[in-house]
Specification:
The complex is a heterodimer of chains A (about 160) and B (about 775). Chain A is α+β, with helices and mostly antiparallel strands and about 160 residues long. Helices cover about 30% and strands about 15% of the residues of chain A. Chain A has 2 domains: about 80 residues, Ubiquitin-like (UB roll); about 60 residues, [2Fe-2S]-binding domain (DNA polymerase, domain 1), CATH 1.10.150.120. In chain A, a hairpin with a 2-residue loop joins strand 1 and strand 2. Chain B is an alpha+beta fold and about 775 residues long. The chains are: A alpha+beta (about 160), B alpha+beta (about 775).
């Protein structure tokens, strides 16, 4: 066991982990931050995306020890303290960008990373960026629409409101 | 103007808040103090005889609580099948045992052989590696037609062959069918494969079971679409437990698509082991494990023949299908190629003579069961592909050929056992033609050709049968369950309402849409109504969610229960208003006396129900009603879809350029949610047509056992979809006039995509009348250059 320390959603945390403990396991099992989901074991589905030092990272693909000293952001830290949804979360609700909700934390965290580097992405850029995030419910239509709406673009002309 | 609340409003989903903030409560988020973890040792060969299992070394490994094998389960039942199909000769299907852990033989890669329960998952995995197996490998039975031959290796030694059943529906007289075909002006024949798929809800399956010696009670948390069904099957048929001592909870469930309907061995194992170990036991499937243990879908091999007269009227249809059951009968597997498939072969057309033949086959593969649409996509794919091929052969417009043969009079009795209550197939096709701008296709094709691409337009019509029922009919057809549903409407003293429903929401938005109905009926704000689901200790016995049934069946129960509540509340209001009950009207949450200005508010009546000081003597206090609803018939959503593709002739790459759906779902409660259901179904259908394939090698090894190898549709594989559901013929036999929308997209889209691809390929001067799904670039390139 090795002690690992990091900042998660602005709070300093630490714990004893094995060398093989994944960051996703550390968040879910040690910190009870179960909003980060694990949907596969080959780093394909993206349900586990979190931010590590501002970058979108698949937390199932990173050891907890690799995040020692890092600033980690998870879905639990996205809304305001009073519970108000952030602009991306609100756009997902407004545009029905989620159904079962399992992929949603990863989608929201990926979308935040996308909009940080590309504040007004085209439809094609959104779809390309989401290559590492699988959703089985929505057919992606309303996810893409929600992300474009969150970027301030008018999505009212996109088919099927 | 769109409504802003109640029936017909696109109310935003209240469940989204918890899902968007990481506050969902999925089964893997549940941990019970002191829980142990189970790891299943699964077969890595497709077929073999177990000679010995030595667990002695594993039992001494660190952290190991107990090691289980098939021997530990000799005293309990196996996994049951919920539908007994009767074959063409009147005999029951062959129904082999399906043990929780393998006994005697392993029959597919992934078949569980032993289970290690340990303090940690890592310890359980390490110990499983120390189990010594001696298994004599046997030839794997994989090809369905070969499996049906005399002398084929048997998947189950005690069965007479590998044929679960040989079944037919429709015209039984072969001579009559032959005569129709002999007299036809044209016959179109098509051999096709409906590719095996894996449902792949994003949340893998999980089971957590706990047991209390103090009370002799069990709780099972599980990723299920129907917790009461799981409790009944597990208690009555597998473990022999009293239902009242078992609570099954399906909390937030991350998608189902059919594969979380079934009762799985892992659920029964954890429940059994929790008592045996006197410790809570948790199992979380990895995705790799899901590929070899979740029931798969589809996997039909069919020949379909369509007979037309000289005027292009459909006069006969014959179809022969081999349907893969896999190694064991999963819960509803036997019903899928029969009553959910054969009955749909009339489609939207008035074909007078139809014969459906189905052989269900055992093979050394993962069990196959319902996947979104369940039999109906397989029927639609056959029918709509052969209709399109006939149009091409005859040189007629595929839309005109369909319209000419549409059923136009309702109710309509098909030759394959169904009675369609309503529909307007021409009206829906009109909507499609407008919404998809089919008139502009020629110009779009010219543009694509100018860019060096082939462009194709594919049309598809579908009919589906949803809200499976009624119970007395399905009972005669072999169902071992009723197919009603139930709801309890509990009005609180202050007027808010909890509705306990048998349906289960795992993405469908029941927590939002169901309150829209109840609030609308009473005239109160939606936020005053809460839906409770997913916990057998809280909800009445209902059958759960699948087959696009939630609103049509459970929603109807909810309406009936709400009507009972309103009837009783009117009695109380009449007493308070000193008026006759017959004169009481309820509107906007106010009870009033007709023709007067006397009224009393909903909240005053509900408070009186629980504080009955001034109360009618003949009425019981309280305000809570339950209704069970057993439908009189299926519902029959229908639709017309158009897909436009571009094919790159250099690479064989297909891209979906446009996809338009025109559906008739009857009345609609929440249009936003309905659109979302259609989008998701289309996404899965495009996945089946273009990308997804569950492939075994010749030894029965699963080649597509991870997301590296099984091509799930991703955001840049699909376009924005255009969805129109303004064609509405309400269901005639349920109180809301609703039909169901959950599976339509997955049923209607694969043939539209393939018809479009073939249209594109044939526009290039080639004559190509068939290509199998998924239409990978290599298949397209081979078809073009073959």
């Amino acid at each position: 066991m090795t002690q690992v320390s990091m900042t998660v959603n602005g709070q300093a945390v630490s714990g004893d982990v094995e060398g093989r403990t994944l960051l996703s396991s550390f968040l879910r099992e040690h910190l009870s931050l179960t909003g980060t989901h694990v949907g596969c074991d080959t780093a394909q589905c993206g349900a586990c995306v979190v931010h590590v030092n501002g970058e979108a990272v698949k937390s199932c693909n990173m050891l907890a020890l690799e995040a020692d000293g890092a600033d980690v952001g998870t879905i639990e830290g996205q809304a305001a303290e009073d519970g108000t949804l952030n602009v991306i979360q609100q756009a997902f609700q407004d545009h029905h960008g989620l159904q079962c909700g399992f992929c949603t934390p990863g989608m929201v965290m990926s979308a935040a990373a996308l909009l940080k580097e590309n504040p007004r992405p085209t439809e094609g850029e959104v779809r390309k960026y989401l290559e590492g995030n699988l959703c089985r419910c929505t057919g992606y239509h309303n996810i893409v629409k929600a992300i474009m709406a969150a970027s301030g673009q008018d999505v009212s002309n996109i088919a099927a409101e | 103007m769109p409504k802003d609340s109640g029936i017909g409003a696109s109310s935003k989903r209240r469940e989204d808040v918890r899902f968007l903030t990481g506050a969902g409560n999925y089964t893997d988020d549940i941990n019970v103090h002191g829980q142990a973890y189970v790891h299943f040792l699964r077969s890595d060969i497709a077929h073999g005889r177990i000679k010995s299992i030595d667990t002695s070394a594993a039992e001494t490994m660190p952290g190991v609580v107990k090691v289980f094998t098939g021997k530990d389960f000799e005293g309990v039942g196996g996994m049951p099948c919920g539908w007994e199909v009767t074959d063409r000769h009147g005999a029951p299907m062959q129904e082999p045992p399906h043990p929780i852990l393998a006994q005697g033989k392993v029959r597919h890669v992934g078949d569980p052989i032993a289970a290690v329960v340990a303090d940690s998952l890592e310890q359980a995995r390490d110990a499983a590696e120390a189990i010594e197996l001696d298994i004599e490998e046997l030839p794997a039975v994989l090809d369905m037609k070969a499996a049906a031959q005399e002398g084929a290796t048997l998947v189950h030694d005690d069965l007479k062959n590998n044929i679960c059943y040989d079944w037919h529906l429709g015209e039984a007289d072969n001579d009559k069918v032959n005569e129709v075909f002999a007299n036809a002006a044209h016959v179109t024949t098509l051999d096709l494969v409906n590719n095996r798929l894996v449902a792949n809800p994003m949340e893998p399956r999980v089971a957590v079971a706990e047991y209390s010696r103090g009370t002799d009670e069990y709780t099972l948390y599980t990723t299920s679409q129907n917790p009461h069904v799981i409790r009944l099957l597990m208690c009555a048929f597998v473990l022999g437990l009293p239902e009242h001592k078992v609570r099954v909870v399906a909390p937030d469930v991350g998608g189902g698509f059919g594969t979380k309907i079934f009762h799985y061995a892992e659920e029964a194992f954890c429940t059994f082991a929790a008592k045996a170990c006197n410790r809570a036991v948790k199992w979380t499937s990895s995705r790799s494990e899901a590929f070899i243990s979740d029931a798969h879908g589809r996997d039909h091999v069919s020949r379909i023949e369509l007979a037309l007269d000289a005027d292009n009227n459909f006069i006969g249809l014959r179809t022969d299908t081999y349907a893969n059951m896999g190694a064991y009968l999963s819960t509803f597997s036997s019903s899928v190629p029969t009553w959910l498939h054969g009955t749909l072969m009339a489609g939207n057309y008035k074909t007078p003579v139809i014969q459906v033949n189905v052989k269900a086959m055992f093979t050394n593969t993962v069990p196959v069961d319902a996947y979104r649409g369940a039999g109906r996509p397989e029927a639609t794919y056959q029918l709509e592909r052969v209709v399109d091929k006939a149009a091409r052969e005859l040189g007629v417009d595929p839309i005109a050929l369909r319209r000419q043969n549409f059923i136009t009079q309702f109710p309509y009795d098909t030759p394959v056992a169904l009675t369609y209550d309503t529909g307007n197939y021409d009206g829906t096709m009109d909507k499609l033609e407008a919404a998809a701008d089919l008139a502009g296709f020629a110009a779009r094709r010219a543009q694509s050709e100018a860019n060096g691409k082939l462009r194709g337009l594919g049309i598809n019509c579908y009919i589906e049968a949803c809200g499976i029922a009624p119970s007395n009919i399905v009972g005669m057809l072999g169902a071992r369950a009723g197919l009603y549903d139930a709801a309890t409407v509990r009005v609180n003293a202050t007027g808010s309402i909890s509705v306990m429903v048998g349906a289960h929401s795992h993405g469908q938005g029941h927590e939002t849409a169901f309150p829209q109905v109840v609030a609308d009926m009473i005239g109160i704000d939606e936020s005053m109504v809460e839906i409770v689901h997913g916990d057998t200790s809280k909800i009445p016995f209902g059958m759960g969610t699948y087959g696009s049934r939630s609103l049509a069946v459970c929603g109807s129960a909810m309406v009936k229960a709400t009507e009972k509540v309103i009837d009783k509340a009117k009695k109380i209001a009449a007493h308070l208003l000193e008026a006759s009950e017959a004169d009481i009207e309820l509107k906007d949450g106010q009870f009033s006396v007709a023709g007067t200005d006397k009224s009393v508010a909903w909240g005053d009546v509900t408070l009186t129900a629980y504080v009955p000081h001034n109360f009618p003597l003949e009425v019981e206090p309280g305000l809570e009603e339950t209704a069970f609803y057993d439908p009189a018939n299926f519902t029959f959503p229908s639709g017309a879809y158009a897909c436009e593709v571009e094919v790159d002739p250099e690479t064989g790459q297909v891209s979906i350029e446009a996809f338009t759906a025109a559906d008739d779902f009857g009345n609609i409660i929440n249009p936003m949610i309905v659109d979302g259901q259609v989008h998701g179904g289309i996404g899965q259908g495009i996945g089946q047509a273009l990308l997804e394939n569950c492939a075994y090698d010749e030894n029965g090894q699963l080649l597509s056992a991870s997301y590296m190898d099984y091509a799930m549709p991703r955001a840049d594989d699909v376009p924005f979809y255009s969805v129109d559901h303004s064609s509405q013929t309400p269901c005639t036999h349920n109180p809301l006039g609703v039909k169901g929308c959950g599976e339509a997209g997955a049923i209607g889209s694969p043939p539209a995509v393939i018809n479009a691809v073939l249209d594109a390929l044939n526009s290039g001067g080639k004559s190509i009348d068939h290509i199998d799904m998924p239409v990978s670039p290599s298949r397209v390139w081979a078809a073009m250059n073959g």
